[in-house]
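Marked as duplicate of an earlier ticket. Keeping the data here for the record.
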Amino acid sequence: MKSIAKGILVLGMFVLLVITNAGCSGSAETVTQDASKSTPSEKKTENQTVDAFGVIKANKSKNISISFPTVVENVEVKDGQRVRKGDILLTLNTTELQEQIHVKEAELELEKRLLAKKQANPDMSKLQNDLRNAQNLYEKDLKELSNKETLFKSGSISRYDLDEFIKVADAKKKIVEDLQYAIRSSSLNTGSDKDSSNTKISTLTSEIKIMKEKLNRSYLKENKIVCDLDNGLITNLKPSSGYVVKEPEILLDIIDLNSLVALADVDEGFIKAVKPGAKVTVIPLADRSKSFEGSVLRITDKAILKNGQTFIQVEIGVKDREGFLQLDYNVDVKIAKE
C-alpha cells in the first residue's frame, strides 16, 4: 500500500515538472518571437534616417556702419533686442556733414557763375570792336597816304607834310597792332581761366557726390539709423549716447531672423546618405515634445574636426518655426536617407 502511494506521488511530481517546463518554454518562445518581431522594425526605422546634433544659426546679417565724423545723440535699442523694419536704432548729429555739403554747393554755384561770365567775356567784345574801328581808320589812312605821295611827287605838298601824314598813319597802324596783341593775350588768359574753372567745378562736383553718398544708406533716414530688415536682432552694439564716431566705423550688427537655419554636424561616415532636398525632422532640446519639418538646403564642402571626430556641416531650412525655434537653440535632427 505504501508502495502504491509512493508511486502515485512520484508520478504526480513528474507530471507537475513536465507542465512547469512546458509553460516556461512557451513563455520564452513568446518573448523570443516578440523580440524577433520588434527588433527588425526598430532597426528599419533607425536605418531610414541619419541622426545628428545641430544649432539654430542665421544665414544673413548686416553691418551698420558710418563713414563720416558724427556724434551718437541717442541709442534707442539694446543688445539682443528684436527689431522690425522702420524701428529707430540710433539718432546721430549730422550737422557737420550737412554744413560741409552746403558750403561745397555754394562754392560750386559761385564757380559756375564765374565761368559763365568768363565765357561771355565783355572785355573781349570791346577789344574786338575797337580793333575793327582801328583797322577801318588805318585802311582809310593807307589810301590817303597813296594820294599824299602822288601829290608830293607832283610838288603839290611838301616833304614835311608827307612825313607828318606818314607819322599819323604809322600811329594808327600801331593802334591796330596793339589791339591785336591785346586780343591774343586775352584769349590765352581766358582759355586758361576757363580750364581752371572747369577743373574746380569738376572737383567740387565729385566732392559733393562723395559726401552725399555717405548719407545714402538704406538704413539712414535723415539723422536716424533705422532697421531695414523685416525681422532683426540687434547684436554687437558698440556706441552709447554721446559716442564720437570715427570714420569709417561699424556701430552694430543686425541678424536677419527670417534667415534662421539649423546647422547640423553629420559624422563623415554617414554623409554619403545625406542629399540636398532630403526631408528633415528638427527636435529642439528646449522641448522634445515639439518637432519641426524641414529639408536639407546645402552640404558644406569642408569638413570640421571636433573632439577627434570629423564632421560635415549640413544646412537645414525649417518651414515653420512657430515662433519657438530661436537663435542658438540646440536641436536634434533626423535626416531622411535618399
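See parent ticket for discussion. The helical segments are 2-47, 95-120, 122-153, 159-215.
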